[in-house]
Amino acid sequence: MTLRVGIIGAGPSGMAQLRAFESARKNGADIPSIMCFEKQDDWGGQWNSSWRTGLDAYGEPVHTSMYRHLWSNGPKECLEFSDYSFDEHFGQAFSSFPPRAVLFDYIKGRVEKSDVRKYVQFNTVARHTSYNPATEEFTLTVEDLTTGTTAEHVFDKLVVSTGHFAFPAVPEFEGINSFPGDLLHAHDFRGAERFAGKNLLMIGSSYSAEDIGMQAHKMGAASVTFSYRTAPMGFDWPENTVERSLVTHFEGRTAHFLDGTKGEFDAVVLCTGYQHKYPFLPSDLSLKSKNVLYPGNLYKGVVWQQNTNLFYLGAQDQYYTFNMFDAQAWFARDVMTGKIELPSQQAREADIQLWLERLAALPDHNAEADFQSDYLRELIDATDYPPFDLDAVSQLFKDWMGHKESDILGYRDMVHRSVVTGTMATKHHTRWLNAMDDSLDRYLNGPSQDVDTGTLATVTEELSTK
After folding, report:
1. Residue 80: which of 443, 268, 322, 345 has the closest Cα?
2. How far apart (Å, rounded) are the C-alpha atoms in residues 39 and 62?
3. Which of 79, 127, 306, 462 matches a 20 to 30 Å C-alpha distance to 219?
4. Domain extent for 83
5. Does 306 share its domain with 367?
6. pLDDT tens digits for 109-147?
7. Burial (0-12, 13-18, 19+ Cβ within 10 Å), 63
8. DSSP states along 62-117
9. What's the CA gap between 53 and 67, in Å, rounded?
10. For 382-387, which contacts have Cβ atoms below 8 Å and span 24 or more sequence positions?
11. The CATH number of the domain where 388 resides is what?
């Protein structure tokens, strides 16, 4: 009987799993029967952005947390596919920190060159999963959102590739329910233009707070204040930006902080992270984890410890992204098809504990980059995924973090070298701080020669800063 594989989600992780099976097929292997379910109308997950917030056209929770003017906050050279380079896709060199549209085009390009779209049912949401231990089969109930009809499918292996940046974690603060200004979670943020001339409070001290705060600065916010729970980010912020300890309570527009200071604000953005949440899974199959580099209960960060027919992709915190999802997908594929034989549950648990002990001892961000590089190395060494220089990528991460420390507004103007092709990125035609048009065409081809009067002033300003 042909092995039956179900994949929930066609974002970068689900696309990686499809590509892993396609790679095996091209190399002459027999592959399983595959079905992939994606609740959006196209693949790409977070990168398939939407203007919608809250609920989508079908009343489903909006998946994407992407926003206008989002540019990569890490070098593209750190996420490059080893079997599909940026050079191959675009046919030209460009800068190291592209906007969302460019990266979306890139990840789509690889799967669109194969015949894997036929496996995906779009506008189809997973509703319920049950597992029969006697037959070792999953029964997955899905709903076609366009027709409202449900169907059941039976699988031998199930891959959860829905990501973990779609269900916001929203804390409570005394008095926040009466705050009269704009109040939203980063998940619902779609553009910083609304904050021009306003005093903005960002509650949080990680990547989304940093990035949305500097987007707001770029778009003309009067001031940006970061409120941290544990420690300040400590970057060399622009003059209108400060960090304060955690908010204790609100009184109208006034936020009070743990250090005894207070401030008046027009808007508050909660950059307080996301929940691992899988509403289509029963509790005994559902991962419960903080956003960490190695979630417990997943062997090699992929295989569910209590049921090795269940796989998670992209469930950890990430330095690497697209290429890590690849390494996980290749590993999951080989476990599913029996090419990789799993050790006993006791041996798997011992391996998980070794990684967790190492994780707990990591002293800083540089060590975290090395940790995830070693994790990828172990996965890649176990499969036929094309290897690449992980030590070089880890150094790129460290260089990037150093550039952020020295210039939080200018690190995206730095260039890096591809470890896949050796191509050196080129300086972008416009500094990130002045680049207001982040369309794919404008990014790759530069300022248009046919400029209407409405954009002439902006283009002139951008050119004058080069």
Report:
1. 322
2. 10
3. 79
4. 4-166+274-400
5. yes
6. 999 998 899 999 999 999 999 999 999 999 999 999 999
7. buried
8. P-----TT-B-SS-GGGT-BTTB-HHHHHSS---SS-BHHHHHHHHHHHHHTTT-G
9. 11
10. 382/331, 382/334, 382/340, 383/327, 383/330, 383/331, 383/333, 383/334, 383/340, 384/23, 384/27, 384/330, 385/82, 385/83, 385/326, 385/327, 385/330, 386/82, 386/83, 387/82
11. 3.50.50.60
8 A C-beta contact, residue 168 and residue 186: yes
In this prediction, residue 168 carries a pLDDT of 96
Instruction: Decide: pTM greater than 0.70.
Output: yes
CA distance 176 to 54: 20
Query: Average of pLDDT values for 219-239?
Result: 97
Tokens linked to 295: 């979630």
CB neighbour list of residue 201: distance below 8 Å, 6 or more residues apart: 225, 227, 247, 255, 263, 265, 267, 268, 269
In a domain, 308, yes or no: yes
Do residues 94 and 88 lie in contact, with contact meaning Cβ atoms separated by under 8 Å?
A: no
Return the pLDDT at 194. 95
Query: Are 165 and 47 in contact, with CB atoms under 8 Å apart?
Result: no
- Residues 185, 259: one domain? yes
